[in-house]
Design goal:
Shape of chain A: globular
Mean pLDDT of chain A: 96
Structural class of chain A: alpha/beta
Strand content of chain A: 5-15%
Oligomer: homodimer
Helix content of chain A: 40-55%
Number of helices of chain A: 22
Strand order of the largest sheet of chain A: 12-13-14-15-16-17-18
Largest interface: A-B, 95 and 95 residues
Low-confidence stretches of chain A: 1-6
Distance between the termini of chain A: 20 Å
Chain lengths: ~550, ~550
Amino acid sequence: MSATTTRTSPASVSFETHPDRYRHWKLTFDGAIATLGMDVQEDAGLMPDYKLKLNSYDLGVDIELADAIQRIRFEHPEVKTVVVTSMKERIFCAGANIFMLRGSTHAWKVNFCKFTNETRLGMEDASANSGVRFLAALNGICAGGGYELALACDEIVLVDDSNSAVSLPETPLLAVLPGTGGLTRVVDKRGVRRDLADVFGTLVEGVKGKRAVEWRLVDAVYPLSKFKDSVAKRARDLAGTSDRPGAGPGIALNPLGAMGTADAWEYSSVSLAIDRPKRVATLTMRAPAAPVEATPDAILAAGDQFWPLRAFRELDDVLLRLRSNEPAIGTIVLRTEGDPALVLGADAVLLEHREHWLVREIIHFMKRTLKRLDLSARSLFALIDVDSAFAGTLFELALAADRSFMLDDPDRPIAIQLSGMNGGVLPMSNGLSRLDARFYGDPQTAKDALDHEGWFDPQAALAAGLVTYAPDAIDWEDEVRVAIEARVALSPDALTGMEANLRFVGPETMETKIFGRLSAWQNWIFQRPNAVGPTGALTKYGTSDRAEFDYGRT
Amino acid sequence: MSATTTRTSPASVSFETHPDRYRHWKLTFDGAIATLGMDVQEDAGLMPDYKLKLNSYDLGVDIELADAIQRIRFEHPEVKTVVVTSMKERIFCAGANIFMLRGSTHAWKVNFCKFTNETRLGMEDASANSGVRFLAALNGICAGGGYELALACDEIVLVDDSNSAVSLPETPLLAVLPGTGGLTRVVDKRGVRRDLADVFGTLVEGVKGKRAVEWRLVDAVYPLSKFKDSVAKRARDLAGTSDRPGAGPGIALNPLGAMGTADAWEYSSVSLAIDRPKRVATLTMRAPAAPVEATPDAILAAGDQFWPLRAFRELDDVLLRLRSNEPAIGTIVLRTEGDPALVLGADAVLLEHREHWLVREIIHFMKRTLKRLDLSARSLFALIDVDSAFAGTLFELALAADRSFMLDDPDRPIAIQLSGMNGGVLPMSNGLSRLDARFYGDPQTAKDALDHEGWFDPQAALAAGLVTYAPDAIDWEDEVRVAIEARVALSPDALTGMEANLRFVGPETMETKIFGRLSAWQNWIFQRPNAVGPTGALTKYGTSDRAEFDYGRT
């Protein structure tokens, strides 16, 4: 499509890592305070054709960041504040690596931004829901995506010297947007006045010192001599606002141990089967094989083998792999297997102990994973058929789907059931439960479904509006096949746009504004010749040529 | 950019028309019921290379629709319901003309959709704020943009025969979105269940009869034999919910009489001077020359010469001309002239009589025009200097601007002042006053500014956060010049994206969702090869070739 998209993407990206293997971050602990020190290794990018200078980042750097935040939540309940800073002198972070962006396909850029957005929203989720506070300690220049990382923190402090500024230079330097939440957070979260944000968004050199505080871009500046102590004090103060338990034990997040073949990935509770000729993947989640651990102590002892956590970690991993590694798979068929009563049993345990720190973490992790599903640019069809376990939490998969099919066969009776987990515990990005989003025009029906005692058979589910179709045994196979074949024949771009509009009905939040408004505009710009064409700014960055623009306004 | 954008746009589009000159609509009146009958003339498109078959439309058709709605509001206070229907048998409207879209530049497509969106939102504004109800009487096939027009109405009724269906076939037929509010209104306004909306959005043939009612796509269906009477009854019922005066006199909206030259347009209260080499236009609004009429009777007698109406009609017209006819003008400098006390006087009259139907219409028209300014994809800089009249309503121009500059020269003292018109009477699309949007992070400052008695001099305005800069006389010229030169040098696409994000801080509404989420995705898709490339669906529509897609998901 353009002169810039010459490189292929990495062959296969894994989203699993561990602090022992981090290349770009140092994660250290001092009681209630953890420090995430950014120290990006120039030569350790995911692809060899760019160097990660000046703490600039690519997806590999962000995968480590996401991992660190998850581990702090699960493995370190004693941590109440995370200081995000840099191990390099005079530079905090230069943002996303421009040469990486320039060499990437459109789809890679879009998916990279989506993952970084999810990671930063995950930090805000940790603060809002788990009492993990984040303090951005900007010890040097903080540009573009670096400042967007800081914006995701609860507080931002900046060293006050002649060098250190915060900036969003994307528009003037690269002709793209600060699209990792930057524009949205500046005005919506930090309340920077919109005209000052406009000035800031066009200033390559950024804003420093007292003015950065006056404009609300940072919370405080400190001279270098007082920086370390001031950061330590603010970190302690932030910790004082946390409701975390403050002591362990946490639980270890061990490797998932997925078995991959050419066209399948197999986890303990999740399977993915890829049919490349048909451009369809079938994702199956399995109910627990036995009743789950029922007390906080037993759940702690089970650790990452506790079914709700294990199954959703696997779901999260498989979704990320699919997004990055299987762009041609346009439709995901969502299935479940096992005993639905055991899912409902797990739901009951989660709801009973939701105030316990670990159960809380697990529920919020499930919530974030389901959001990841909502935000995946793939068509989602749920198949509710024999031996399925679409109950409670697993019924969220059907509610997340664009369409659902339930087999109506008297010889093989199947049923679905809701639980308290469908009532708002696992909200979408727009703040609604998937049930309320489904019945946005008819809230009483949502309430009736939630209040319904017991199971819904296929006709009851259809009448209650909980499934799209309920074909009988004769029609089932053809109807499902035809629907999938018709789906995968449509333009994937139009489907992405349609799904992004229909899935997020009703209210918007800062989160949906970032994905719906900011990302959609950024994606538009990521295709524009003024950014990525032969004379575009992203193409010409770092060369001796100046960008040349078509000045026509759209 | 693509094989499809081969045609240039019309040389110059005028947005003024009159029912006597309509080519495509018949506007008739029967007491409280007006009928807008669509009867598009195939050979009367804005450009000669397409035929407007089957009541399909181009911008010219929509300009007449917008004109008709304005005239109903101002010229016909007796009208309480508008029946929107077709004069052709068996076809209501086939939507936007596909051959027009295919031959249009990207910018033309985007601006065409923006105007049609504004027109449909204007219908909803008329219903919500002026008691003008709209009834879509679908007497035949209603597809794509035709159904989107129906969605903008309060009620939709459909003839029940074997032929007549509603449909949104854009995704399966053209690989683009139902982008004139369609996707948003189906789920957000009409409350169609999202999975049914998903099915509907992929069904070329659409949905008809009882199922269309069950899915909430229409409010009722009637057999042809009962259609006319049922429509008449529903129109009367809707009229019963209106608070319109029900009797005249209305006021005539006469031609604006703008004088155009190669690089200027001159109206009675608005001037536009275009500097093409600099890619800047200066838009000046003039305060009334004398105190405005102060009683409803006098305002009715003044009619369209009443300054607030006249000045904002002129502003509206000049913005539309700029958008369509001057794509290379990236920055609009906003100025005012005259006696600001007379603006405040006009504001006092508007506020005192805002319950009167005509004053209400005028205020909502001013509101819609200012929204048009917010939604214009041009950088807006306000210059507050000698002899300016940035007070009350005219200060909204400065609040709409991305930046404002106020001259601080003791020898030529100038000042700004707020009025009650700045306090929420003229909200943005997101429901906030521009003052509240400006101080989204600091609501007390917004309140203080509104409560402030009397004028703000430049330093007071700066301290109150009401202007971005207050240069002194020595710096003024250079500072303004450098800022404008720097602005117009930036990528117009990145600026469009940045402005679209910074201007709409805080809450989102159905209106901002249509422009921010739906339009942004549509604009993305409007560039995608799967739609507009050599084998894209929009390119191949109506040919003997099938579209060929790149099935990679983004």
